[in-house]
Amino acid sequence: MSPEKKENCGLFGIYGDADAVQKTHFGLYSLQHRGQESAGIASSNGRFIQCYTGMGTVARVFRKDSGLLEKLSNPMAIGHVRYSTTGSTKSANSQPFLSEYSRGQVAIAHNGNLINASVLRDEYEAYGHIFKSTSDTEIIIHLLAKPSHAMREDPIAHTLQHLQGAYCLLFLFPDRIEAARDPHGIRPLSIGQTASGAYVVASETCAFDTIGAKFIRDVEPGEIVRLDERGLHSRFFSTPGEVTPAHCIFEHIYFAKQNSDVFGENVHTFRKCLGRQIAREHPVKADVVIPVPDSGTSAAIGYAEESGIPFDMGFVRSHYIGRTFISPTQELRDLQVKLKLATVKEIVAGKRVVVVDDSIVRGTTTRGKIRSLRQAGAKQIHMRVSCPPIRHPCFYGVDFPTKEELLANNRDMEQIRDFLDVDSVGYCSLEGLLSCASLPADHYCTACWTGQYKIPINTVVNKFIMERYQMTMFEGWIEENV
Amino acid sequence: MSPEKKENCGLFGIYGDADAVQKTHFGLYSLQHRGQESAGIASSNGRFIQCYTGMGTVARVFRKDSGLLEKLSNPMAIGHVRYSTTGSTKSANSQPFLSEYSRGQVAIAHNGNLINASVLRDEYEAYGHIFKSTSDTEIIIHLLAKPSHAMREDPIAHTLQHLQGAYCLLFLFPDRIEAARDPHGIRPLSIGQTASGAYVVASETCAFDTIGAKFIRDVEPGEIVRLDERGLHSRFFSTPGEVTPAHCIFEHIYFAKQNSDVFGENVHTFRKCLGRQIAREHPVKADVVIPVPDSGTSAAIGYAEESGIPFDMGFVRSHYIGRTFISPTQELRDLQVKLKLATVKEIVAGKRVVVVDDSIVRGTTTRGKIRSLRQAGAKQIHMRVSCPPIRHPCFYGVDFPTKEELLANNRDMEQIRDFLDVDSVGYCSLEGLLSCASLPADHYCTACWTGQYKIPINTVVNKFIMERYQMTMFEGWIEENV
Amino acid sequence: MSPEKKENCGLFGIYGDADAVQKTHFGLYSLQHRGQESAGIASSNGRFIQCYTGMGTVARVFRKDSGLLEKLSNPMAIGHVRYSTTGSTKSANSQPFLSEYSRGQVAIAHNGNLINASVLRDEYEAYGHIFKSTSDTEIIIHLLAKPSHAMREDPIAHTLQHLQGAYCLLFLFPDRIEAARDPHGIRPLSIGQTASGAYVVASETCAFDTIGAKFIRDVEPGEIVRLDERGLHSRFFSTPGEVTPAHCIFEHIYFAKQNSDVFGENVHTFRKCLGRQIAREHPVKADVVIPVPDSGTSAAIGYAEESGIPFDMGFVRSHYIGRTFISPTQELRDLQVKLKLATVKEIVAGKRVVVVDDSIVRGTTTRGKIRSLRQAGAKQIHMRVSCPPIRHPCFYGVDFPTKEELLANNRDMEQIRDFLDVDSVGYCSLEGLLSCASLPADHYCTACWTGQYKIPINTVVNKFIMERYQMTMFEGWIEENV
Amino acid sequence: MSPEKKENCGLFGIYGDADAVQKTHFGLYSLQHRGQESAGIASSNGRFIQCYTGMGTVARVFRKDSGLLEKLSNPMAIGHVRYSTTGSTKSANSQPFLSEYSRGQVAIAHNGNLINASVLRDEYEAYGHIFKSTSDTEIIIHLLAKPSHAMREDPIAHTLQHLQGAYCLLFLFPDRIEAARDPHGIRPLSIGQTASGAYVVASETCAFDTIGAKFIRDVEPGEIVRLDERGLHSRFFSTPGEVTPAHCIFEHIYFAKQNSDVFGENVHTFRKCLGRQIAREHPVKADVVIPVPDSGTSAAIGYAEESGIPFDMGFVRSHYIGRTFISPTQELRDLQVKLKLATVKEIVAGKRVVVVDDSIVRGTTTRGKIRSLRQAGAKQIHMRVSCPPIRHPCFYGVDFPTKEELLANNRDMEQIRDFLDVDSVGYCSLEGLLSCASLPADHYCTACWTGQYKIPINTVVNKFIMERYQMTMFEGWIEENV
Lengths: 482, 482, 482, 482
Hints:
Largest sheet of chain A: 7 strands, antiparallel
Largest interface: A-C, 55 and 54 residues
CATH superfamily of the largest domain in chain A: Aminohydrolase, N-terminal nucleophile (Ntn) domain
Number of helices of chain A: 17
Strand order of the largest sheet of chain A: 3-2-4-1-10-9-11
Shape of chain A: globular
Structural class of chain A: alpha+beta
Number of strands of chain A: 24
Helix content of chain A: 25-40%
Oligomer: homotetramer
Distance between the termini of chain A: 23 Å
Low-confidence stretches of chain A: 1-7, 85-89, 322-333, 459-482
């Protein structure tokens, strides 16, 4: 998948561990692929919450010499890594959000996108509320603080019932963590446990491996899991089974790490299955199968196995540029492709090459990579993509460009082939894609291919709507690409 | 005055100047003595507001190489330098505060202390409002945003009528600046004009000199001054004359700069008058009169002139440590006295020395200075203080310690003399102090000496009450003493 | 290869390009895998040289907002990335070294290790010379500056004749670049040319791809190549053919990037050949072949192809920790393994797994990885290593630990198998290794396996000898892991 | 004295104190007025030396959070603050200089200016020596390392006999400190002792007060003082009495702090005597005497006392801009005057004002101050200067501009009065100046007024000569004005 596609966020929380803050730090490292724009950790000593957030990667925000992690030694903590889907790239938008309201302090970390955030914001501003950020997440604290919500038996449940869209949420109160997932279960959120019995929640199970915890189960769609001194307690704010799940299948295709299990199955296995599937759907005579690393690697291995064509690593990715270069601005995009992905001439020169990538969005960076292969002497280039053509925007947290910018919008296969300048192009069919999934086909959101949104988009909502809140809040942060 | 006494804040605003941001920057430099904890500038291009704040001095926040000032080139701006009176020393408390509410954006800068802030905060939290800082200033935005206020003909006037305590306020809206001063006129706020006609407001007139503007008049107690494209417009939210002013005479004694005019008269002249007054009230045979620089210098000159005893600079102040070392923590206090104030032995050795300081709070640092003089060989030391003994706390923005910590609390003159280890001690009488003032005696607040508070303190209020809001928000700022 | 093995350095130089500095910057990015400890660029405007060096990665030293690259806009430049082999990790050791001597300025960048550096340093100190660093490179400037050398017709050639050991050198004089390679050609150095005709030199050809230059040929062992306004001029300071080459075959096995050509052949192709070779030498029945990424990937693909066992990516490497964590200290080594390399359970659970790595040094990190595989449920683990057991130290720039610390020192295969806790272990034979090489077997240095050093080690020399120069020079650099 | 005049450097050293590094840190704070361009501390644990230097003020280089001072806990240390007289403002020139030569390590700190530095540098480059900086100090290490010097019984004494010009030097060897002063005693260097018996050396005695040490005596011209485990040992490298001293009287007039004793007498007392002297030489009828703070304050007090005209502080200096703004570039000079020195109108309006400054160099900033007074309403302005007109350059460390730029060059008193736009101008006569000095008149250097240089200037030497060494070495330092 091209670097132009932005990630969503990563969540991590742990209750009941003397090294909660340090383990949250490690957990965030393992979730760093979900967002490098900002990072933050909020922790509580049981009485009050301390929060530190900053712009950039986990390594940058929590620098070895900053002493921050030592200062934050509390038995419970939540952490967040962020890539903006709504909200400018401002430090005011970094999470966790720490606030105080009538019931005391709360810190919130959010993965997903609320489609009714601007409607709610208008409503609450009309009530006299003030806002300090441009993030959709801030509205959640306002809902929670509303007196008619706060006096309910379960204010969080009541609050969540007002939210529309995709959300996994971690709430840190001075005495507990509450973890919730939207009724459609769009984004993943899993529960684990350390050897000493502390409970952990994370966007992906790879974070459990990092700190030596075991996967227990997912937070269910519509469930709130409370972690406190009495252990883990579950409740539902949405009747289980009433809402058909709408898991974002892009988590499997692109977002999640190969070694994570999401929605009940391993990401690598899923991707490899996709590779086999496109090998069957789009066979071709070729000399070598190469992936666009790293997101295309698993599928390429699958393609190679199914087709019998040798697998090789025709592209070499630089580890020193990283996704940190993916600034929301266009400026360094060309430089990036060039520096990030080198070509191994010996693998492709004079060969018929099958290139496997996870998806294509705008197509411009893919075209750049194809050009590199041509320059390296590839005789034929056959593009294989492990999902169907993306033709519709996502309102649930995937930061696709506008419909007009999507490569597959108003282009047929021949035009796409021309644009990319390849000898053939083959996308995985929707049926093929779903055949690799273990859950029923209707348990996934496929809107970006089909346009069928499981949560109705009533209002004219897009990812930029929050931007009318033209608050440009520099808060001491000077961008430093490291 | 001893370094243990904290300052309040400084405000600067300018409308209608192409270099508004740069001039605000200069203005803040000249007001730096009013607060070094944080600095910030908010500016508007007529449509939306940009705000940058940071911890530390103006020089530090707006570093030459940060490029911030070039980015912020708008025709109107407000700025703030802060020393905390309420609210922890956290970056979340730095000002101007930028928020959005139902009517759009607003940035607020505040000098003073609201005595009903915690009551109002409780009330608004009960309405469901959330708070992001521990500063008393944040409540003002909530009041302004309250629907029943926002729909008024003059929401600002209506908002101000709810505030109790000391406040000078600058509001920056996308299209205008509004400057207001509390009905008692406790803190100073003046209006100036540049040669090209742009209006300026500032806590002290010295800021006008810095940018080449002329003083016009003070913002009156209970007045709101609006600066917009139609020029300057005045209105009152409190009937003029109904409330007797309660100007903080400590502005004359300590806070303001010698070259400023506050409450209608020059600070240096006032202080020199005080020096003459204590020379008359507490004459002594001595060889030399020396000030505790810089706040005692003017009075010492006055004392020397009246008494005929030669003036000299027996203390030398270091310019490289600065007030930045005055962290609210105790830790470097001893180091500070030692490094900040050196003694010129030749001036004091074998001499009978009159030492003039503006005031004494705890007395511990004064005692340290006296000890330095003894070590330098002074034969006799006569302490003279240009205001009466401080015996009561201030609720309007001067950060005195608790009553118990005040030197003059429960100590008679002999005990004070013993504590300081001086040969004699003489404070200016209240009558003597007021005789130097040009306004009627009842136009000043003298509560710290008399305990007679002009604004009733009904609730158990102290400067630390906001601290129960135990939000420790580190926002990316690692303290660097420079 | 385990992270405990340190890299050597990377060189880049370009003459005659308006964007020389910027292209050097790009070139260093592509050579970053050769050293992340420090980076630097020296450039000349034809009259004098400017030099900037700093600690950390290229990205860190030349931060986007530092403006350094814009300032350094000269038509010729050389750059360096460093990993210390001798010399403490101090900023005084970062390169290029800029000095002035009787003939003016010179900046030097060095890749390799001089085995007679300490002898020469003693000699020159006895002449009264002073040294500012602990690097072996500094002696070169002293040799060059020696009057009896400086007055020679070719002072550089004369200087080089005094050096023993491994070296590729770039000299930047105000008007030219001189590039030299030791008579044994131990480290690689290649010449390229841009489309517009500018000459480029680099440690690896991958740097040419990055800036769009074409490979021309290698700098020959014993050759000096001069780049100036008259183009490229070659001369030899050692009679060609007289010395048998001793190319460091570890460049093929570990150091160089897959897409580079070194010593006349492609790195990836070489490694894949090794994989095939060990598949023949050490066949085993297994379900999957997995590499230790990234250095074992090419060989694993070769092994899989030769054996017919499916290839898969059982380890996932984190891109956010990077080699920057490899501080020469032991402290974070455990953390590193854990965070850097995750296991994909689904690939290895219940499987017979062949693990391919490029080499094993101490064996401790390898053992850690094996343990991860066991924990992930691997049924059998068969370790395959694409070079012979390392039993001897390197004096030419590879930072192996002491002989005692080497896994294969005094351990037979069974003991190694036990240590690693694997079901079988198989190293590539020396003959097998050399069979993949295109040059005659005696053209390579194989000392780390055979103990046969091509350059005699007469004196008691080891990589730490320079450390007796106990100069601990902090020069304003506070380590920041980013 | 105008800010255009640059300072020289400050030295501090201490032997035999457990807190040697920390006390050096304090000592440098108190010497900060002698140079703010760079700061550094070298310390030894008895076996080897650690050194840390950086650009900017002491506060900036040794930031509270950098942990540098804790790391450097050794029983002996030397420190340096620098203002460049020769050598570009580059980090390569910051001191102490740490090097290694045949006898081991040595760190050197220097105050003064060597007039034969470039001659010696040429000579040593001809010997094959290399140079890493553009500072004149670097040559000293080369002299010390020269074999024929190093084998002498007293290499330091032998080295110093080759130096011409002004120098106070501290040498830190692993086991001792050696402090030396040139035979003319141009710059000051004093010896003190702490209560616990540790010996201290410093450029000014004010540093002793800061750390609680007592002044013992000056290091004599031509003397070397050795501080080691056996205590203090003195020797002479120049026959005492053979050379007539040439103390820089500008130390009294401008450089040193009021509370320091230099050349045997107190600075404040000296300056006050000058004020009395000019009152006698240039009496005038006036209403008020005001100093240009801080260097003119003592003389103004003396003028006021002698004349009977009241003293007052008509200028207020800002403590937040500081000398850090005095970058060697012209760019911020205007801003600086405006922000640094405010006028108190009430003191000067309608008055006949005597303004006392220590000296006038170019006259441009003085003219700016006069203009401020006129704008503030002064009726008459009488300029009084406490030294004679400066007409000749200094080769011994005072960074006057070129002869052509000096105000008094080719201008008579009337022209000077016109240039400054004052009603009268009066300089102190040379006789008057010397009458305030306690040493014989011929014991001072008066070359800047008389052109009679006590050390012959044989070669065409000027302060910029070293600048032909066009080494522009950026070493990781990005200027940050704080």
